[in-house]
Amino acid sequence: MANDDVAKKIDVNGIVQGVGFRPFVFQLAHHYGLKGEVANTSHGVSIHVEGSPDRIASFESDLCQKHPPLAHIVEISRQTESVRHYPDFSIVHSRGETEMSTLISPDVSICEDCRRELFDPNDRRFHYPFINCTNCGPRYTIIDDIPYDRPKTSMRHFSMCPVCQAEYDDPTDRRFHAQPNACAQCGPHVILCDHRGNEVRTQDPIQKAAEVLKQGYIVAVKGLGGYHLAADAENTDAVVRLRKRKLREEKPFAIMSYDLEHIRRYADMEADEIKILTSIQRPIVLLRKKIPTCISDEVAPRNKYLGVMLPYTPLHYLLLKPGFIALVMTSGNLSEEPIAIEDDDAFKRLGEIADFFLVHNRDIYLRSDDSIVRHSGGAQRFIRRSRGFVPIPVFLKNKVPPILACGAQLKNTICITKNDTAFLSQHIGDLENMATYDFFQLTIDHLQRILEITPEIIAYDMHPDYLSTQYAEQRPDIQKIRVQHHHAHIASCMAEHKLDGPVIGMSFDGTGYGLDHTVWGGEVLVVEEHAFERVGHMAYIGMPGSTAAIKEPWRMALSYLQDAYGSDFRNLDLKLLREIGSQKITVISEMISKTVNSPLTSSLGRLFDGVAAIIGLRHRVNFEGQAAMELEMLAADSADAIYDYEWITDNMYKILPAPMIRGVVDDVQNGMAIAEISAKFHWTVIRLFADLCDVIRKDRDLNRVVLSGGCFQNATLLTGLIQALEKKNFQVFTHQQVPANDGGIALGQVQVAAARFRS
Ligand code: ZN
Ligand code: ZN
Ligand code: FE
Q: 316, 337, 360 — which closes off a domain?
């Protein structure tokens, strides 16, 4: 040790445990010839280093830049210490539970090193489907308690063989403290079963599964966060059979391909999309289909896009290697139930769907569906945030009390806070059946346990019928804060960007419970965190048949037509009206005018549905938002003209749909192509709201606009509105960390509840 040696204490906060961070520090210290020690603490990792100042500086810079892929550094603090003359650099083992950090890594894809070993005939893990290391593999889905150590994971049933144990104990090994470390001698294994659960005797179950897939059979595959249902994506018969058995008529299926070369054969990719596809999170990415394509049309009917992902487990690589262009890999569930994770449950629920089961004996403790993203408006946008991303928290602007937010009814997620971090759960689903509601409760219990949080405040939606609302209201001894749906949407985006109000919030979706008990969804708000003011909205219109009008857009079409033309609308020469027939038209028309079972809505989502029905796209939908999605899919890239639009001012701006509807009807009657009409309609909506923002800027002196709500999954609307607003020099904020749809709403509920609690 030289005389000018100094010592430093460096505390690293974030996801730095169970991800190979300490061995990384150990090796880095050795590389620079530094002495000292590294230990886990309750906040992360604490390092003491001694050596020459310039070597410590290099060490610090590498610490930030070269850390292991799974580590997620939130904060680094440094402090000068006195030199203690350590003889070497060592890893201090954690001294018990109180020292563990609660930040757990998400499950991520197999790393390059493991993949190389997987296909290396000389490696001892050649073709072993559970190969993993500190840089990759399962985490969140196999943990049922903290600290994150093998006995608290589903790997506790497997004791390591001496070779694996030696790797686990060696700080210089890539598998040092890799909790799921295993090999074919000591770890989990795969078997193939028929649909009754009888094992199919074979040398190589994965190879055999690939063979039956090639023959057109459907195979349930146990994966990382749950079961998938797999079928050959080129085989239309197989895909159609899967649709019929799964009771899924038209909703697109996701597909998986071995590598980018395979994907290139059926989809176009841009550099940004390739980056997302190959990221360690491996989400499903929406890519434009090549036309014609070798992929069966039944995979994503009437859709310009395909949901595509790369393999993320060794098992997937082995299954796809035998030469599929792509496999359908859709959630292993019936219709809208949660994805199956337990083997008995899987055989019971999927036995009628799958012909074979590729299963293994590593339990999944917490299900996690595949995440779905789309690249639009220059950024990655979540449609579903789940596997690969959860439980990475959203970091908040301020410390908040422990809050549990229960989310919405559809695409439910929940959110739990600890200090300045908000943990948004994995995708739970639509709270419309008991199985999903059970999963909702289980997720709340699980997150409370692994994050060690007892919530003091419970935040939830105002809708009295949501199961999430009912859950919240039944919880005793806890402060309850109800948050309006569209306020929560905007607050969610504000939380992501750490914004203080007031801002202009454009909250556009299908449905949300309004303060006046109507169905809101086309809302222009001035939002502060604790409160909001409604300054504009789509004018109210009847939803004949209430929720039936969501499933049957033709009902909305009649409502908009009646609004635009009065009762004369029945004389219009429209294919839609001829198909519905005068009897039904009379019934619906009376429901609207007498407001019988015809609640009022200001929803923008319903306007998209109504226009889709008027131009003859579809009368009814098989899944929420289908008509609106198809309207976007077929829109031409640009529009030469837009429709007239109008709003009236009576204490707030009310946007009238009638001029747009009349314009659409004229174009339909003049035989304009529906691609043109759709584009014209989209650009009318964009122009209209951009202009309204101008007016509000003058009224309120606000220049920041926040966009949120399910309608912004529509890339044309999102990118168009961003451009139009930026052209007017607005500062525009959009979602990048959580979904714009109801999957992000729990984060907004947290933000509002925290602000209310403070004031
Ligand atoms: Zn690895
Ligand atoms: Zn082993
Ligand atoms: Fe919503």
A: 360
Q: Which ligand is nearest to the CA of 133?
A: 1
Q: What are residue 417's phi and psi, to 5 degrees? A: -110, 150
Domain boundary, last residue among 360, 381, 402 = 360
458 is written with which tokens?
Answer: 């419970």
Tell me which ligand sits closest to the C-alpha of residue 508. 3
Q: How many independent structural domains does the chain possess?
A: 3
The answer to whether residue 399 sits within a structural domain is no
pLDDT digits (tens, 9 = 90+) for 378-424: 999 999 999 999 999 999 999 999 999 999 999 999 999 998 899 99
CA of 280 to the centre of ligand 3 (A): 29
The range of the structural domain enclosing residue 219 comes to 190-360
Tell how far the Cα of 711 is from the centroid of ligand 3, in angstroms: 9
Helix (H) or strand (E) holding 13: strand 6-15
Does residue 714 share a domain with residue 584? yes
The whole-number pLDDT of residue 149 equals 82
pLDDT for the residue 639: 87
CB contact at 8 A, 414 and 366: no
Point out the ligand nearest to the CA of residue 483. Answer: 3
Report pLDDT digits (tens) over 138-189: 999 998 887 778 888 999 999 999 999 999 999 889 998 899 999 999 999 9
Same domain, 206 and 344: yes
Residues 238 and 347 in one domain: yes
CB 375 within 8 A of CB 272: yes
Query: Which ligand is located closest to the Cα atom of residue 189?
Result: 2
Output the CA 633–ligand 3 centroid distance in Å.
21
Q: Tell me, what's the pLDDT at 98?
A: 47
Q: Does a structural domain hold residue 147?
A: no
CATH classification of the domain holding 719:
3.30.420.40
**Do 663 and 543 fall within a single domain?**
yes
Residue 208 sits in a domain whose CATH number is: 3.90.870.40
Indicate whether 133 belongs to any domain: no
Ligand nearest to the CA of 408: 3
Q: Which ligand is nearest to the CA of 69?
A: 1
Beta strand residue intervals within 41-151, DSSP E: 44-51, 72-81, 89-92
Q: What distance in angstroms lies between residue 722's CA and the mean position of ligand 2's atoms?
A: 53
Q: Do 694 and 568 share a structural domain?
A: yes
Ligand 1 center to residue 275 CA distance, Å?
19
Q: Which ligand is nearest to the CA of 159?
A: 2
In a shared domain, residues 79 and 214: no
Give pLDDT tens digits for 735-747.
999 999 999 999 9
- For ligand 3, the distance from its centroid to the CA atom of residue 518, given in whole angstroms, is 14
- State which residues of the chain have pLDDT below 50: 97-99
Residue 581 lies in a domain: yes
Question: If you measure from the C-alpha of residue 133 to the centroid of ligand 1, how many angstroms do you get, rounded to a whole number?
Answer: 4
pLDDT at 82: 93
CA of residue 358 to ligand 2 center, whole Å: 22
CA separation, residue 254 to residues 297, 364, 751 (Å): 13, 21, 33
Query: Which pair of structure tokens corresponds to residue 648?
Result: 């009236």
**Contacting residues for 438 by C-beta, under 8 A, at least 6 apart:** none
What is the pLDDT at residue 104? Answer: 82
List phi, psi (to 5°) of 322.
Answer: -65, 10
The verdict on 66 and 211 lying in the same domain is no
Q: Which of 110, 746, 727 is nearest to 404 (CA)?
A: 746
